[in-house]
Input
Amino acid sequence: MSKTITLTYREALKTAIREALQKDERVFLMGEDVGHYGGAFAVSKGLLKEFGPERIMDVPLSESGFTGAGIGAALAGMRPIVEIMTVNFSLLAMDQIFNNAATLLHMSGGQLNVPVVIRMGCGIGRQLAAQHSHSWEPFYAHVPGINVLAVGTHEDARGMLLSALESPDPVIIFEYTSMLNLEGDIPENAGAVDIRKAKIRREGKDLSLITYGTGVYKSLEAAEILEREGIDVEVVDLRVLRPLDEETFLASVAKTHRALLVEDAWRSVSISSEVSARIMEKAFFELDLPVERLCGVEVPIPYPKHLEDASVPQVQDIVDRVRKILRP
Amino acid sequence: MKKTKTSKRISKAEGKRLLHQMQLIRRFEEKSAEVYTETKIRGFLHLYVGEEAVAVGVIQALDEDDYILSTYREHGHALARGMDPGAIMAEMYGKVEGCAMGRGGSMHLFDKNIHFYGGNAIVGGHLPLAVGMALASKKQGKKNVTCCFFGEGAAAEGEFHESMNLAALWDVPVLFLCENNLYAMGTALKYTHSEQQLEKKGPTYGIETATVNGMDLLEVMAATQKAVDYIRKTGKPYFLVCYTYRFRAHSMFDAELYRDKSEVEEWKKQDPILQFKKFLLEEQLITDKEIAAMEVAVEKQVQEAVDFAEKGSWEPVEDLCRYVYTETQGS
Output
């Protein structure tokens, strides 16, 4: 058995970027403040000195321009990692992502691959108010032609980027800024991970908590509390939001017969809307109870801490809801 | 900003080849309109009639390894680049034999083998791609140029300004080739740009810039050659504005309420094909008989393209979900 190391989510992300740059000379990182500033969240701190300005490219505030340039560079044989500082700014690049990255393979009848990786910080939890706290994974997961990943664990922070760079098609990676300082243990030799499958993060028999992103650690914490009460929940980390790995979560539901879907994104037309629909379509007769959801409250995210906290599911909310479902 | 002068010396063979290309584009477009009215082609169809000297002139200055990105009015560029007319017509018919398996249609012609990267139909959306492709060439130590065609309408888009800035900031070998046909769909330049001399926008980004009469083939060739020489020598971007005019409607849905017929007729006096024919005749580089023979040959070529498309096959509906991901990854 290999040794484990303890590191922060941020360090795991950075280790992955460094390894990618070392492994493949076609790889370069481009984004706002990734170089001289060291990354808005210090993820790429020190990499400019280590790899030089050709590999770590600061870009102007032109989300559409530099994201499109990343897509163009990918078309012409490079393996760019485009960092959009946060998902909040990514709407300015949506034309490039949806109208170009997602369509070029198809419009060209299979001739053109777009092996671009686009990383974005995202999520709520730092009192940044309505324009800087978005959970927009569902927008991206809506569109065929791109792969959408959610980094919910340290293992995935260390490995997803490396796997994404092996993909011949565009990959969007959501990284959760509220998790950057969280410490976690991963095997010392951790590396690329499977980016096609969801993952059972904890096995259980009473109910399936199906989630992604920050919902993963919250669900795991909730599961520990519930365990003390004799409730044994399974935690399914979707990880891949497009294409969804329904096989894994349907199998979990077939085992536990109960499902609670947890996510920060607004409830309407969310990832859980899709997961719920697929459970109804394909595992309806496995269910003992209706599928339930804990999602973001449908409000622009407010600034005060207590209201911000109330806007998305917290550990206690998950615990309470599971108790209510299982012990009405 | 420089106006480019031309020395109008070309060989007989070159003169014929160039005229043939322009004639082919003209007839191909006219034929496309015909088969459109027969409902063989559907969707949007944007014709290049009147602007032939730009595509043909510019592409003469490019090498095989250079990348080309174009707009939704790109049949002329594709033909001038040497794409098979049959593959283009079949694409517009939506047949599998089309250059993009029929998946793209008129606005999305692609052929990786000749470095033709669309057929891009979001105005201005391909400019960042062009910068990125040129950036890749620079990083890879390649000497090729990326030529990006766009209309003056695109110059009002943010992506134009972002791309100009990035290209100049990064010193990448891209030719921004503006086909200024004076109308963004049906809205005239004067209603859409505060500064109508678009060439003034280049120097503000520190980009070498020139304008050229886009109705004169030899002038376009010379101006582009100069631009491409500059890019190859310096590795830096270049902005070339071609003043041109489309003789036909914006698309097949356009009733042309926004311009006078007399204006169109006035521009037709500068028809690039008539002008070039006249030049070749005056310089005794071609005879009337040869022109007549060329017209017959072009007609045959265009008819063969239509026949090829007619004989083409429909992709089975079972294949609908192909080309979404490189390998099938489920739904």
